[in-house]
Structures are given as structure tokens and as C-alpha cells.
Amino acid sequence: MEGLRAATDTDKELQTANADLKARIKDLTSARSAVGSSTTSDAAAGRAQPAAPPTTSADRRAIAIATVFALAAPFVLFGFGATFRVMGWSFFTFSRAAETGLIMAGVFVLAVAAVCVGWRRATLGGVESALYWLGCGVAWTIAAGALFYCMRWTVLGSSYYGESGVLFGCLCALASAAIMIRRRKEPLAGAEVALYWFGCALAIAAALAVLVHTAGWRDPSLFLVSAVAVIVTAAIVVWRRWAVLEGGEMALYWGGSSLAVAVAAAALSDRLGWYITYGVASCLVLASGTILIRRRKTPLGAVEAAIYWFGLSVAGAVLTALVLHQLRIIAFHSPASFGLGLAVVVLSGAAVVVLRRRRTAKA
């Protein structure tokens, strides 16, 4: 009898433990389904989940390499072009040596990107992909313009060879961005959205500039139209993503829009002969940057600090040179004005580095 009672008690304990285990499994399944449905609804509504920061030194190093690649691509292109021009190397004629250099530089940049992507293929992140796409898009567009010019290919009429190539490169960049975004299995993070916006905004601006130029408008008009296009696209993206904007993402939108404002000011100044447009643009950049920094509830990251520092320091330097020009101390377009602006940028950068080190030491 005692053995039967012990067996009965053991059976009851096992049944109770089995019921508890089933309840826990059910709770975990419900929680996972809720998380999946929330992620799916956010993706359908266009709200991307913030990407986790790189957790390993290899990831941080890979993103740094991709950033250097994207920043260095334009300089590599013009470096190749200048070298081929000086040395007289050309597959066509001597007068097209610079264009030959641009074509070779485009091939070189694309090859480097292919090697880097192949090296990180198994662990390639979204931000890395966007950075490599940005560098390749710039290189391809410029190289396509040079190739069309050398081969005398045109789709815009006679004598518009380089313009046809630039337009073709811009359309390819926009199409490749759409393909890469659709191939993503996860929602885009804020930094990825900002990088794709920046590249697509540049492509749209360049394509509009080509079309306006072929329509016979003057140069200031085409720069003004391109700058307005960049500002409008930035405003649309910020409006659509206002609820989930991240700090670094907003800094990129501000930096690109500030560059467009500077281009628009230069175009208006050239067309109307008013230096005051530089002052208005500088005040807009300084005011908007200050407001965004003051609205931040957390300390700025390194990338954000670098973007805000460069934009605000350049705007401050331009405003200072304009004031001195109005006081008839130095000419606005003069070596002294350029040297003053460079000094302002360097000194402000040193101040930012010192302040960030002090805050880090206190923390």
C-alpha cells in the first residue's frame, strides 16, 4: 500500500509539473507572436526598429572601413583624373586623358567595393551596405559621364555626351537603391535610411541639373533647382519618420540640407549679386543646428558631433567673413577671408575635442 501511495503522489507531482511546463510554453509562444506581429506592423507602417550598435571590434572596424571608402571615393576619382591628365595617359586621345582616368578610377572603386563586400559577406550589416552603395553610386555616376563623353554616346541630343552619361549613372544609382532596399530582410535602421536618402538626393539633384542644363537654363538656375530638390526630399523623409527619428539620422539630414542651403545661397548670389544671401543661409544653418543640439536629451555621439561641428563652424566662418566684408576690413572673396574661415573651423574643432574629452573624463 505504501508503494502504491508513493507512486500516486509521484504521478500527481509529474502531472502538476507537466501542466506548469505547458503553461510556460504557451506564454512564451504568445509573447513571441506579439513581438513578431508588432515588428511586422511597424515595418508595414514604415517605422524601422533602431539597429543595435556594433558589439565587436570587428564590426566597428568594418563600419569604419566602409565609411572611409564612401568618403574617399570622390577623391580617388579626381586623383586618377588629374594623374592621367598630367601624364597624358589615354585609351582614346590625349585630349581625353582626364576622362580616361575617371573611367579607370570608377573601375578601381567598384573592384575595391566588391572585395570588401565579399570579405564581409557573411556578416555584412545594413549600414555597411549603404556606405558601399553610396561610394559606388558616386563613382559609377562620374565614370559613366566620362565614358559617354569619350564614346560620344548621347540620349539628350547632340553635344550632350557627358550629361547623358551622368543622367544614366543617376538612374542606375536610384534603381540600385530600390533593389537593395527591397532585398533587405529586416526593416531599415535610421542610419541606413539617412544614407540612402543622401545618395538618392544627390542622384536626383544631379539628374535635375542635367535636365535643366540641357533645357538651356543658366548655371545658377540649375544649382538652385537641385538644392531645392535636396531640401524637399529631406523634409519629406523627416516628416514620414518624425516619430522614430534617431539622433545620428537627424544629423545627416541636417548636414545634407545645410549643404543644399549653401548651394542655393551661392546660386542666388551669383544670379542677383547679393552677398546677403550668404548671411541668410549662415544664420539658417546656425539657428537650425543650435535648436537640434539643444533638443537632444542625450549626449551627442561622435558622428553627430563631427557633422554639427563642421556645418556650424563653416557657417560661422562664412558669417564672420561676410561681416568683415561689410565693415570693409577684408574682401569676401580673398585669401585673407579663406584663411580666416579655415582658422575658425580648426579652432572650433579643437574646442569640440577638448570639451568632449573633459565630459568623458567627468563621466
Could you list some keywords that capture this structure?
globular, 363 residues, mainly alpha, 0% strand
Strand content: under 5%
Radius of gyration, rounded?
27 Å
Largest sheet: none
Helix fraction, binned, reads over 70%
Global shape: globular
Q: Tally of extended strands? A: 0
> Helix and strand succession?
HHHHHHHHHHH
Helix tally equals: 11
Uncertain stretches of 5 or more adjacent residues: 31-53
Secondary structural class: mainly alpha
Distance between the termini: 70 Å
Q: What is the mean pLDDT?
A: 81
Account of the 3D structure:
The protein has a domain at 58-216. The chain has helices at residues 2-44, 57-87, 97-119, 126-151, 161-183, 190-214, 219-240, 247-272, 276-295, 302-326, 335-362. Residues 31-53 have low confidence and may be disordered. The protein is built from 11 helices and no strands. The protein starts with a helix and ends with a helix. Helix 5 (161-183) packs antiparallel against helix 6 (190-214) and helix 10 runs antiparallel to helix 11. Helix content is 80%, strand content 0%.
Q: How do the strands and helices of this protein lay out in sequence?
A:
Blueprint lengths: L1 H43 L12 H31 L9 H23 L6 H26 L9 H23 L6 H25 L4 H22 L6 H26 L3 H20 L6 H25 L8 H28 L1
Helix pairs in contact: 2-3, 2-4, 3-4, 4-5, 4-6, 5-6, 6-7, 6-8, 7-8, 8-9, 8-10, 9-10, 10-11
Please provide a brief summary of the model.
It is built from eleven helices and no strands. It is mainly α and 363 residues long. It has a domain of 159 residues.
